[in-house]
Amino acid sequence: MATQKALIKLRAFNVTNKNITMGESDILPLLKATLEDKSKVQDRRMKLNEQDNDEDILSYFDWQQSSYIFGMMMRIIPAENGGVISDELFDRETIKISDIDTGNAGERQYKDHYYFALNNSYLITNLSGSYSIDRLQTYINWLLGDVRQENYFETTPITKVPEGVKIEDIRKIEFGDSGVNAKTETSTTEIRTKLKELSGTLLETLLKDSTSLGDINREELVSATLMLKIKAKPEAMAEDDYKRIMGAMTKQITNDSGFTIVAKNGKKYNGAEIKVVKDEYVEKTKSGRIVEEQLKQKMESFLRELNNKQ
Predict the structure, then answer these.
(1) What is the pLDDT of residues 274-301, one digit of tens each?
(2) DSSP secondary-structure letter at 257?
(3) How far apart are alpha carbons 233 and 271 in whole angstroms?
(4) What is the DSSP code (8-state) at residue 211?
(5) CB neighbour burial string for 45-58, b if at least 16 within 10 angstroms, e if fewer
(6) CA distance 253 to 182
(7) Which of 84, 91, 90, 92 is closest to 108 using CA atoms?
(8) What is the C-alpha separation between 26 and 15, in angstroms, rounded?
(9) Are strands 108-118 and 259-263 parallel, antiparallel or unpaired?
(10) For 193-239, what is each residue's pLDDT tens digit?
(11) What are the strands, taking DSSP E only, across the chain?
């Protein structure tokens, strides 16, 4: 009988500390100290909103010496049916997927989970591309709230120049309606509003040195489709600058079809051809769960590849 395998899409992100200028973020020492202090799952529960009981928790983690941390994020919701997490599980140091099928009905139940691997420079995760990485970024900064002081850790997608394209070949970048959190339950009006909010943020970034920005009527500048034309001379933009700009622009774009690079020859490239991702096959157990150690090693290999490209 052939071994069952799951196809896992690994997304890659840069990790930076917005309070300091240095090659690495130094996030690992802070995480190490925090997790030694918050050894119980109970201490790692972050409520998404004070008006309801949905929570994110770092339910399991494992240190690979001091080079990176591998962990599993879990979202839990008020218990209504199956996948129940009993109160006694929160007194443990970790919770694994197999634990949620045992015990008595408690106050919370499992909704979903994903994995990540993190070092001082990069983050790898199998969090679905339909979700913004802000979901994990928010949790990490919350978890480190007692120790990070003025530091703030930001994650941005690692991007690449589309295969066969040179920087000087890029003519324009387009953001369409479907690009910003375009989920089935989101109305067209909401999409346009979010697109304009993103456009406003981009304008602030691009025009941050302009004292007259506050006098600009953004409604006259921003339409439902944002188009950025590359006017700089080819030699004026280094590849690192391009990747940094693309990472910032694509962070909130959860639909790859909503982001397009147009080359001078008219050929178009969407987000899937711009973001750095890696498809990996991971074995599954008889019960259909992935082999976590194998996934961890796949993520470790990806981290090593990124480190070697520095």
Answers:
(1) 889 999 999 999 988 999 999 999 999 9
(2) G
(3) 24
(4) T
(5) beeeeeeeeebbbb
(6) 9
(7) 84
(8) 9
(9) unpaired
(10) 554 555 555 555 554 544 444 554 544 444 445 555 555 554 556 77
(11) 5-17, 45-47, 55-64, 68-78, 84-85, 108-118, 122-125, 153-157, 170-175, 226-229, 259-263, 268-270, 277-283
**Full-model pTM:** 0.74
**Burial of 163 (C-beta count, 10 Å sphere; 0-12/13-18/19+):** exposed
Tell me, what's the pLDDT at 228?
A: 57
Distance CA 161, CA 52 (A): 43
User: What are the Cα distances from residue 77, in Å, to 49, 85, 106, 108?
Assistant: 12, 10, 11, 6
* Average of per-residue pLDDT values in the chain: 79
- The conformation of residue 290, written as its DSSP 8-state character, comes to B
Structure tokens at 103: 């015990």
Running DSSP on this structure, what letter comes out for residue 41?
A: G
Q: What is the pLDDT of residues 80-106, one digit of tens each?
A: 555 667 778 888 888 887 777 544 444
User: Tokens for 276?
Assistant: 């750095």
Q: What is d(CA 227, CA 247) in angstroms, rounded to the nearest whole number?
A: 17
pLDDT score at 37: 95
Distance, CA of 11 to CA of 158 (rounded, Å):
8
What secondary structure does DSSP assign to 70-131, as a single string? EEEEEEEEE-SSSSEE-GGGGGSS---GGGGGSS---SEEEEEEEEEEE-SSEEEE---TTS
Burial call 200-224: b when 16+ CB within 10 Å, e when fewer: eebbeeeeeeeeeeeeeeeeeebee
Copy the structure tokens of residue 173: 């970048």
The residue count of the chain comes to 310
On whether the CB atoms of residues 170 and 273 are closer than 8 A, the answer is no
Integer CA distances (angstroms), 231 to 31, 110, 183, 196, in order: 42, 50, 33, 22
What's the CA gap between 24 and 120, in Å, rounded?
A: 6
Nearest CA to 280 out of 266, 254, 257, 299 is that of: 299
